[in-house]
Amino acid sequence: MVSIIALVNRLLWGHVLIYGLLAVGAYFTIRLRALQVVHFGELFRVLRGSKAGDSAGISSFQALTVSLASRVGTGNLTGVAIALYLGGRGAIFWMWMVASMGMATAYAESALAQLYKVKDDAGQFRGGPAVYIAKGLRAPWAGALFSVCLIVTFGLVFNAVQANAIADAVEGAFGVPKLVVGAVLVALAGAIIFGGLRQIARVADIVVPFMAGAYLLVAIYVLVVNVKAIPGLVASIVAGAFGLRPALGGAAGGVAAAMLNGVKRGLFSNEAGMGSAPNIAACATPSPHHPASQGFVQALGVFIDTLLICSATGLMILLSGKLDPGSGLTGTQLTQAAMTVHLGVAGKYFVAVAIFFFAFTSIIGNYSYAENAIIFLGHGHTSRLVALRVGTLAMVLWGAYQTVSTVFDAADASMGLMATINLVAIVLLSPTVVKLTRDYLAQRRAGQSPVFRAQDYPELGSGIDHEIWR
User: What is the pLDDT of residues 118-155, one digit of tens each?
Assistant: First the structure.
């Protein structure tokens, strides 16, 4: 089984998905005429117009914060350090490139999730890839397979990974035993996830802006202090990306290593195309009342996660002078060493606190995706939701105390299959994405607040809930 899982991961992450995610990002960038660049201001305009969610949905801002809760995790601190160590500073450039194209993919999948959303037994909006696969492509079996993969990956195993990162960081910085950390995490996470989606949204609404804002403020301070070094640093990042200065390569060396590690870091961090964020995008009451508005919201999530937070980590590491390929100093230890240079002894504790917030919010964000999937599979019966919540908390406690690499490798394989299904689906549904986008932008150009009119989309038939869009 270990050999089979390793083979699946090599095929999916070594070949299919690295190129597939890039290709799909480029495809939507071209088909949507570089929407994420040409209409960049719209990402913020839809958020400014966000209204409080109604009885059926959450607000667009809450949908953004929950998706960021999942996206922004330990990878933004640890993963970026590993990418730099293996790929050199040029990896940062390729991380920027994949995020720029990933914004178009995130737009497409979230617009589709909003379009095909349904109401659950409690009258609350639900949806995501499972629903638009089942209704848009008339392939409920594929939607069910996607849901199972999502529950295993995001609902269970990845939460163990995040809990383990928290326990390691807290034990290393403050000496608190891992089992105690795990028990505290279970208590905190349980109080939130047993409150359901709205409780998760309320917590994310407060915690995510605080954690992201605080981290970016520290990064701004570091950049201001080192402002004279910034132009040369940016030039060296670009040079390293294209092999113009080979000495800047990482431990693996060369432009290929820079590209591979930068691309992987960007893809794993922002999750564009994975099919995760659309699960929360479908739960929003959009403002403007058009599916495309949620596409813009989630494209902004990719921008914040990778182009702001991952970049902040990368630049602070490079400015510290602690990146030394071949030294063995990488991951969380490299990030901590870099922050100690910038903040003194407080840097070590700052990283530990940042990892706690980044990873903890990932736990509750990941759970919200799994809840959507369990509802798709079983109509949200209370017993099934309770089982999922208990399973999530059990994995948090287990993950805080120990790690089993085979289980995590299995989660990577499950996520790879999930992403493959989603990528095929959104490409097949791309004509609908293009039509939605043209409709939305035409109304904006006419000075109107875009409104979705189902009668203009007769080809969708009974695939969408006409009552929702009335």
Answer: 998 888 899 999 999 999 999 999 999 999 999 988 88
Architecture of domain 2-463: Up-down Bundle (1.20)
Is-contact 240 256, C-beta < 8 A? no
User: What's the rounded Cα separation, in Å, for the pair 39 and 36?
Assistant: 6
Q: Which residue shows structure tokens 């891992």?
A: 178
Number of alpha helices (DSSP H) and beta strands (DSSP E) in the chain:
22, 2
CA 182 to CA 161: how far, in whole Å? Answer: 12
Structure-block tokens of residue 133: 């696969």
Task: Please name the amino acid found at residue 196.
Answer: G
Side-chain-side CA neighbours of 230 within 13 Å: the count stands at 12
pTM, two decimal places: 0.91
Contacts of 386 (CB under 8 A, 6+ apart): none
Domain boundaries, the chain: 2-463
Nearest to 10 by CA among 407, 409, 276: 409
Cα–Cα distance, 351 to 173 (Å, whole number): 9
Half-sphere exposure (Cβ direction) of 155: Cα atoms closer than 13 Å: 25
* Three-class SS state of 118: strand
